[in-house]
Amino acid sequence: MSADADVDVVIVGGGPAGLLLASELRLGGADPVVLERLPAPTGLSKALGLLGRIVQTLDYRGLLERFDAGFIPVAAYSRFAHLGGIPLDVGRLIGAAPPGHYPAPVPARQAQVEQVLEGRARELGVDLRRGHELVGLSQDPDAVTAEVAGPDGVYRLRARYLVGCDGAHSLVRKQAGIGFPGTPPTHVLRLGDVTLPETDPERVPVGILRTATGLFTVVPLGGDVHRVVVSEWSQPPEHVDRDTPSTLEELRAAVRRVAGIDLEMRQPRWLSRFTDAARQADRYRAGRVLLAGDAAHIQLPAGGPGMSNALQDVVNLGWKLAAQVKGWAPAGLLDTYHGERHPAAERMLSFVRAQGVLLSPGEHVTALRQLMSELLTHEQTLRYVVDRLLGLDVRYQLAGDGASAHPLVGGWAPDLPLRADGGDTRLGMLMHGARPVLLDLSGDGWLRAAAAGWTDRLQMTVARSDEPLDGILVRPDGYVAWAAAAGDHNTDGLRQALQTWFGAAG
Ligand SMILES: Cc1cc2nc3c(=O)[nH]c(=O)nc-3n(C[C@H](O)[C@H](O)[C@H](O)COP(=O)(O)OP(=O)(O)OC[C@H]3O[C@@H](n4cnc5c(N)ncnc54)[C@H](O)[C@@H]3O)c2cc1C
Question: Which atom of ligand 1 is closest in space to residue 170's alpha carbon?
């Protein structure tokens, strides 16, 4: 830590992004402080589950077994996956996909995800300050100064870096002068987690109902509690005073207007409104200030991309920022965070906007949905859409990822079954500590010799695998930085990748 700073990193926001980032930084050897304005968790959940790439990512950190909601059989995937309400028959793809390509969905609500991530962060010794709100910030060449309103008054905290994980209305984004361009809201959606005394499927259809004026959705949350969501296209967002608290009567009236049902709803646990605005920070870094999660991108929760992308942002950022504060980051490493995650979110926003169109009313849209449904009977189209929905198509343009690079480079590292001296294992088990992994599968030890100068930053594992590979270098976020086919003694390529990602040889 510099003599001028109190802490390595201040993380603003103890939601999913802030909590996971704190653990990633601790695993990388940095000391973060998390500021969370809420004195205690609310227990409420916006997101209702984890799907796709983020499930694989949490598995690579050994965190999946902490979710006690159980796992949904992969074959039941189709219950969760849809494209703007058009069901996606994921089951049809599973047989033809490599093992583990479609990880089982985890039905963990956001409150449980936050509980698990907070437990992990505390185990790792993170200083999590609840009831502490960021009220201002400034930066100079050496540090960022956070002005914090805590239970005992306002105080200042100087940090080498500050990350805004403070959600859609991010104060960090505003104070850092980062723009948030995108598409404005076209309509308002109302939500209620309520008790439904009557759930006759004839009258209250579970799933998505498109009507002439909007959408009506009922999602069972367990027992007689349901999430009711109504989107009303006839009501432009400017007609709704978003500062007025939502009421059950407002939700009931919207259901009546959109679905023509007089729905009895009781005991609201959570009432809210949101929109289909889709915006993205124009840069994820301004000097010593960075953004992640909803602070960096907002969108309609169609297909549930928000929490998943927030968590993937911070797994990408954590090891790079830790390397920066620990002093071994090669030049430009921290900027690859924007370089990789900004395009990934841009692509996600475009996909969500397309889903928003498919969910809108009107006969033209019905015709488009029909066309999409027909296209989705083709396996290749179905695979493309499902992989995109689940974030399984994310690839990064990594240095050395050219025509001559191994096809694995830039993509997610497959969870290779391995035979090692200590017994059978798999690649994902080696990733729990968030260190880069160099897997030597060559049998003749040439990788160990080539990487000798990096052993202080790498976890080197000698193993045997049935894959035709001599070795693979995996970044802490689970993406492949380098790989060599069996018999390809590409020493120069390996040393170049090590230098690019982990700095000069020691
Ligand atoms: C109705 C709805 C349904 C959704 N469903 C899904 C889904 O099924 N799947 C999915 O993946 N995503 C879903 N999402 C999106 C998901 O909830 C968000 O993407 C996710 O919460 C983002 O996490 P975050 O940590 O970036 O931000 P947040 O969860 O918003 O956390 C930000 C935290 O920062 C704190 N904070 C804010 N300002 C300050 C400050 N100045 N000082 C200190 N603390 C501060 C807040 O109190 C909060 O705890 C849904 C969203 C909505 C609205």
Answer: 38
